[in-house]
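Two proteins follow. First one:
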Amino acid sequence: MQSVPPFRSALTGLARAPSSESASNAGDYKRLSADACCAPSEAELRSANRRARLVDLDSHLHCSIIGTCLSTSELRKLVPKFTDLDKQHASDLEIHHAAVELAIEGGQGAKALQKALDARYSGAVRRFETAKSPEALLTLWKEALKSGDIPPAYWALMTHPQAVMSVRQVAFGDLHMLSHLVGAANRADIRRLVALEEENAALKDKIERQQGKLLELGTERDATVRELTRQLAEMSAKAQRVPDVSEGSLEAEVLMLREALNARDERLAIHTSRREAAERRTINEQNHARTLSARLDDTIATLNIVQAECSALEQAMLTQGDKAGSRSADLENLAGKRVVYVGGRPGSNAALRQLVESAGGDFVVHDGGIEDRKGMFAAALPRADIVVFPVDCIDHDSMNLLKRVCDRHQVDYHPVRTASVASFMELMARLRRTASHPPASHFCLRHG
């Protein structure tokens, strides 16, 4: 199964695709080239008149659209209908990859995904139809970013008739930067996972006690009302059975009944206020419990990523421990290659250097501009075979400069989640799987 393409390849693919900004209509595209392989697709020629379909979009966009706009539970119900995956035993990653492949291949699977997306985000699609220019479309996208309603706006923008390539690049880049913020928040959530679970259990117990107390108060109130109603009925019947009572006794009895009614109303008001306060507390506790449950789900997702990194690191350590001088299978593709590592920490960088050099590779470290000048990127990167940088130990200026230099010299670069050895080994395992299943070639026999 093919791995998800990295962020660099996605932006590069978008940048190389023909856009409506470079040629205003289908006639301009035809005048640019008469060859079928270089001409715009039929979907691009119709993009000014209707929304784009999922299969019409660039294949680099499918991963971000599927991962952002459809939940894993929805994909687990839909994907097995068009593939041989078992929805009970297939992993979330396998389900996601299968959905991306269905979107790229077209056919009934892509139509089903298109239908599910249109049905779920029909309101956002209608709202974005008011945009009649790329600038208006970007304005709606920025408003969605501020409100946090990302998935509906992302689908409506990507399929909008006015979504030129530059607009899609902006949306794709904004979505990527959000992943940095989510990663930073998840690291703090991992440290609080145990405390959140204990707090969640305590809140559930508290809610159950409050509900029991509320039920007890309601039962007591109903019993009081019934008792007072019975007393009132007895007194009324007694007054009717004794017609010759004196006027003074009747007034005293009426006064007593009024006092009893007032006392009942006061107790009823007290019980009602207690019940309303208990209901409000119960609603607040339930909302807090749902928030904790959502944070727990996000933390578990991050733990799954960390578990994959630890598994890759453990496999590498077991391989080295079996036989002296042996090398991990994930590091075999580094033999004879030059690896440039930008950022990181001194301790982990030393361990990474030992791993790469033991695999027959050359490991070069650049601290990202703390002591080494950022201008040395231009001298170090052209000779590199691969560039790696941890997103948690490099500033954004250095990261943007690094990407520009790598794009200019056609050098592959890969961001990793942390500066740890585990994140580096997980990247090597992912690159090895990508090398064993290369993507389909779009080579043009005439123009290369």
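Second one, unrelated to the first:
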Amino acid sequence: MSSPEATVLPDVLTAVIGGKWTAAATDATIHDVHDPATEQVIARFAQTTAQQVDEAVRNAHDAWRGWAATAPVERGRVLARLADTVRAHADMLATLESADTGKPISQARGDIAVTARYLEYYAGACDKFGGETIPQAADTFAYTVRESYGVVAHITPWNAPLSQMMRGVAPCLAAGNTVVVKPSELTPLTTGLVAILMVEAGLPAGVCNIVLGDGPAVGSPLVGHELVRHIAFTGSVAAGQSVGRVAAERIVGAHLELGGKSPTIVCADADLGRAAKAGALAVIRNSGQSCFATTRLFVHRAVHDEFVERVAAEMQGLSVGPGADDPDLGPLVSAAQRDRVLGIVEQARADGAEIIVGGHRPTGRDTGFFVMPTLVASVTNDMAIAQQEVFGPVQSVIAFDDLGEAIAQANDTPYGLSAGVFTSDIGRAHRVARELQAGQVQINRYAGAGVEIPFGGYKASGIGREKGTEALLGYTQVKSVIVALD
């Protein structure tokens, strides 16, 4: 069990280096952290300086030597203890994450459970993952080993701070890497605290360091550091392109998860009730702030009107409010995000789309970054709302007459993260899945998949795969050894 001090956030959060909160630099920029439901300041943090970023990376590099040399079975035992620690502090972590992101407390609890599950899953994989022997001539023996990179930089988003962090960090640690994590400056609260709890639970100091601040001031010196040998980034395409350029210039590997505009095709023979619930779920989870969410519903014209009515009915009953009250939807993360979402909806209206439900701020709620669940119909695939990642509680419906046409339009986007199809014809389902250009395709469901299922995108949705054993492949490098036996 951790000490009481380990569960207390400092008055001003700072970087975590070598298992401890560091002292803020005398000239550090102090940032406020807001509760997006009340707009009140709930915490402050000191931006990490470039010198402290260098210290964090070098400290992690020093820790890597010992961590990489630790027997895989022992690394697994440590990760298992970390999973237990996260579960032991689940209520506290969920409360913090709900206040930080605005998400309903029940969704925050789910995210903390997933965080622990990542650690548990990769704890079991540590001693079951390795190289292979390769058939050769009788006088030669050849084999491969998988080795860690060293220090891996992780830049994580604000929509699910802790589970997104552990999605990459857990397999990194399992493979013998050490990490330096930069959470979003909008939602930094749980990341540093968990790093302290991990050390209390037995993770060697320096194996997981945390730096705080924005991309230009903190992210750039982190990904550009000479001792960072791999980069994992989740965020926008524009920011991912910048990270990718740095990785290319430095000749280091990169995982890039850059968002989506995920289509779902609803055929005339689909279970419309199930499909409508999936369409509504897209705006509920993280208030639609999810790259995975399906936000373009291609619906056969024969069932289009009934389907729109069903989705509208699902959305009209949703509650909106502060995360602590556990509504269906919380606020968006910031005023800028709220205004952007409302602007895209208004553009859709101007383009000729029909706002069936929502499309505005809640009546009578003057504070908080809330947007009502929104359903937009009469959308065509060339509209901005069908091509841009809205990242808010907005669902779009596009009618189709021909399945081939629907597949072509579903693929007509720069993104390719996820997709879905609803049909009672299982042969058709598999044929559509084969044609959809996406890293993950769901059939007759659209919900989050387990930590065991690889996740990542085609096209502009990114490079590499997280989750499952694919993540272990991505966070290791292969060494071939060839031996003469004569």
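SUMMARY FIELD: The CA atoms of residues 257 and 462 lie 5 Å apart. The mean pLDDT is 96.
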